[in-house]
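WARN  no MSA supplied for this record, continuing single-sequence
INFO  ligand: pyridoxal-5'-phosphate
INFO  echoing inputs
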Amino acid sequence: MKKVPSGISPLIAVDRRQRIPLQRQIYEGYRSAILEHTLRPGERVPSTRLLAGELGVSRIPILNAYAQLQAEGYFETRVGAGTVVSHSLPDEIPQFWKARNSETRPRTRSPRRLSRLSSLLPTGRSVLGRGPGAFSINQVALDQFPFRIWNGLILRHCRRPSMDSLNYGDAMGIKELRAAIAAYVRTARGVRCEAEQVMIVSGSQQALEVVLRVLLDPGDSVWMEEPGYALARNIFLLHGCRIIPVPVDEEGLNVAAGVKLQRKARAAFVTPSHQHPLGVTMSATRRLQLLEWAERSGAWILEDDYDSEYRFETMPISSLQGLDAGDRVIYIGTLSKVLFPSLRLGYLVIPADLIPRFRVARVAMDISPPVFPQLVLADFIREGHFARHLRRMRTLYAERRQVMMQMIQEELGPEAEVLGAQAGMNLSLILPRICDQEIADEAARQGLWLVPLSASYLRKPARQGFILGFGNTSEEQIVAGIRKMAALVKRARG
Ligand SMILES: Cc1ncc(COP(=O)(O)O)c(C=O)c1O
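INFO  complex generated
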């Protein structure tokens, strides 16, 4: 039998002042809720005793109404399951009921106006780069996460929670986690910060939202990498910013081109360690140019350091924030690419003098991040599980990446150019003489999910190809997937 939510009372209003008997009111209330699909087949209804207490009436009219509903087949009673809405009722709402209700319901005549800004967001395809099977982009090996350890830590905090952990938390996040993150980004990423500058957020997406609320106004221009990260683009659009797409080449965002397009932009959003989606690393020259532009024009730099944990050929490259002497860079990190994305935890590193402004904005937005996941994560880091998991994943992703590179070489030969394989969990495969969207559509029909590179461009795509994730893709899936993709590419080229 289907599992059902238990004993929640539907909104049934009874009014003793009415001349309609209580029993009839309760019967009508339930019947309407069932026919309108507010209550669905299999859902449990509260016991007569509970409902009597909630409605403040005696049990007698409720017992009578329930008996009537049962006799007419709206309710059924099963031993151990209490009274539930009959499973045998149709899922569709009967036509006569719809017709009756449409006559009685008032028609809306005035237009239902939505915000202008939300209408700017594309509602069609998902931009998360997540699909079934192989090649999901920027996705971790979900089956490798040490859930036994994680669950143990959850139990530790939930068994006997402190009173503090049940109350609203600090808007910036809990002290222990902020200290652990500060120590991590200082050592691993060359970020210059103290724990007080760290704000815990629900992923980099919320980090951007907080940043936007504090630093930018609707109408402000923002440089965005082209091609670039669509979800970041969307949050800027939702805030009313003007997007200035600035081309990316082998050295990262082309600062000179940005200056030509819009010198007076108020901010630049960049992924310098591993540009999304091309994967290039921003050169030292470009980093210095970008910092100089920001200093001169009074602009902010929003550094999204989303997957810098994985670097396969050289030493990790320090963050842009670490080079910044003018407090122009806001550093954004995420745990989605190290632990798992549904955790929804990330962090911001804020220039010290801006902490009060960020704090009040955060209180206005959602008061504070949830406390329990932070407690668990702080222990996970402090007790060494984080570092151990990261080391294991680096080895695994390096192996998967190796297989992918070899397969591309074997199946597509020298005409295929690979970008961005030196870091992260995906690479960009540049393929001349194809239409990547057409091939992706055909691949989807054959059960293979490919992310076309062209989808990451706001303007006319300068390159065609695919973004291929290997983090959550096994070696067997890589071999079979690349073979299938290569066959589709060859067929499309004729
Ligand atoms: C460029 C980029 N930044 C950040 C993220 C992580 O986002 P979040 O922390 O909101 O999960 C992703 C995830 O795919 C990404 O591709």
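Residues 48 and 182 are 55 Å apart (CA to CA).
INFO  checksum written, moving to next record
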